[in-house]
Amino acid sequence: MKEEKKKKKTKNNFQKETEINKKDLIVYEIYVKSFKDSNDDGVGDINGISQKLLYLKNLGVNCIWLTPIFKSPQFDNGYDISNYYQIDPLFGNMEDFLNLIKKAKKYNILIMLDMVLNHTSTQHNWFKKAIEGKEKYQNYYFFKNGNSKNNPPTKWKSKFGGNAWEYVPKLDKWYLHLFSPQQADVNWNNKEVRREIYKIINFWIDNGVNGFRFDVINLVSKPDDFSNKKYKKDNYKNYTDGKKIHLFLQKLRNSYYDKKNIFTVGEFSSTNLKDFSKYTNENNSELDMGFSFFHLKVDYKNGNKWVDKKPNLKKFKKEIIKWQKYQQKNRGWVANFLSNHDQPRHISRFGDDKNYHFESATAFATLYILLRGTPFIFNGEEIGQTNLYNNDISEFRDIESKNSYYKFINERKNKEEALKIINQKSRDNGRSPFAWNNKKYFGFSKSDPWILYKNPYKVTLENDLKNKEKSIFLYYQKIIKLRKENIVFKDGLFFSHNKKKELFIYKRIFNNKEYLVVINLTNKYVKYKRKSTKIILNNYKNEKSLNYLNPYQAIVFEI
Ligand code: GLC
């Protein structure tokens, strides 16, 4: 009898869960360290997230992605995992996490964990054993002979600066690290490693998580042979979208084939349209969706992000449209976003955080949330949090930003110039503590946060809600509802209508229903004749002229 009851329960749960589709998801990324600190040690934590679930429910999101919460020495803020089965005490413990899952279920909020499987921390047991000389564990990584003591196996550069190989004198070998020397790349060619990975994934699924964000996942298929002859040049193509990547992702998917409703999103570093469509085409059983970054790299110069450059809006538009069209045609599925924990805040980068704070925040939200794909909102953007605007390098925490700054100084750039670039591009911009209210430290914590936010424009949730007409939070609520309840936005086709360079215009069409999304990307008035009088969303009220769009105006028409 008991057994029967149990079975029935599972069936009902399953039926309920199957109603969720990737097209229904509105994901919210939580940078755990900076969201809400429940024990006032200056660092955000799991219990802090539990306290804010009602806030998230009110916002309307139905899935949260937590940046890595696993045990880690935190050289790269948790993207250097030393134990995949343990929660880092900085964030709480397993009981806190299981409580969060339980509470989130009540609110119908799914939980996605951030899995870093391209590399482990050098403090992971596997790596420690490798260094002790155990061959089995050396094969978990890429330990290779160099051409000589001062000459690594290849000329590859680390993405955080410097060489991608670290010499271990004791072993007279080099190990590969595409990121910092504390993040050693893992060898997916080794079957034993893949088995360990499947075990990790299944452990967390069995503990109730609903999905994963896979960190830099298209870098995991490395070549078999690392001879310098073959890799004369340092080129990201040497290890990006590698030969066995699709096979590896299919095998990974297979490892939990019997577990239902697990959602996955891949972070794809410098990928291409074709591989992306394969990764995210549901017929291929690899991943559900993915992030690409070309629409953001529009303020780079020859692939270099550390330059002082305004974003090229024409290119921005072109990249978004290109990816929308190609993935639609080839059944890929894009995870749409403009900000995350590695990016400057989009309101400061593309909008005008000083003069058109509400307008530019809502214009860019309208732009990406209604595209074909799944929207990923980054914590803080729904109240218009801005870049940090720091005065000194000592105020930065990010390893990549610090490395770049000191490189500039070594190259004899002056401090002001170096700081200007770091302020513009630093990943720390997205890592400011969430500004809940107007108390000290914005209600994030009662003690000094691990990273400061001077918040020059006094952006807080409390201030945002004071003026209902111009509340970014309330606008996000509205647009999320629109997106969630409307099949046209969930499943409709995308068509771009771009005549004017200042405007981003697209249509979403499903059967005979049609919406037109019109966005002014600039702080200027732009001529535009309304195509319909049926307006379902508009970030301006009481318009004076119907022949113009106001600065950063966004309108959704029903056609
Ligand atoms: C991803 C993460 C980033 C991290 C890097 C290495 O790009 O988003 O924060 O530093 O991978 O794991």
Q: Could you characterize what this model shows?
A:
With 559 residues, the protein is α/β, with parallel strands linked by helices. It folds into four domains: 11-118 and 191-388 and 433-481, Glycosidases (TIM Barrel, Alpha-Beta Barrel); 125-183, Oligo-1,6-glucosidase, domain 2; 389-425, no CATH class; 493-558, Immunoglobulin-like. 30% of the residues lie in helices and 16% in strands. It has 17 helices and 22 strands. It has helices spanning 2-18, 46-51, 53-59, 94-106, 125-132, 135-138, 191-206, 245-254, 273-280, 313-329, 346-349, 357-369, 399-410, 415-425, 461-464, 472-484, 487-491; strands spanning 27-30, 63-66, 70-71, 83-87, 110-115, 119-121, 143-144, 165-168, 173-176, 183-185, 211-214, 263-267, 289-291, 335-336, 374-378, 493-496, 503-510, 513-520, 526-527, 535-538, 548-549, 554-558. The strands form six sheets. Strands 13-12-11-5-2-1-15-14 form an eight-stranded parallel β-sheet, with helices on one face. The protein has a five-stranded antiparallel β-sheet with strand order 16-17-18-22-20. β8 (165-168) and β9 form a beta hairpin. α12 runs parallel beside α16 (472-484) and α13 (399-410) packs antiparallel against α14. The longest helix is centred in the first third of the chain and has 17 residues, at 2-18. The protein is globular and about 75 Å long. The N and C termini lie far apart (56 Å). The model is unreliable at 1-18 (pLDDT under 50). The structure holds alpha-D-glucopyranose (GLC). Alpha-D-glucopyranose (GLC) binds at residues 76, 79, 116, 179, 215-216, 267, 341-342.
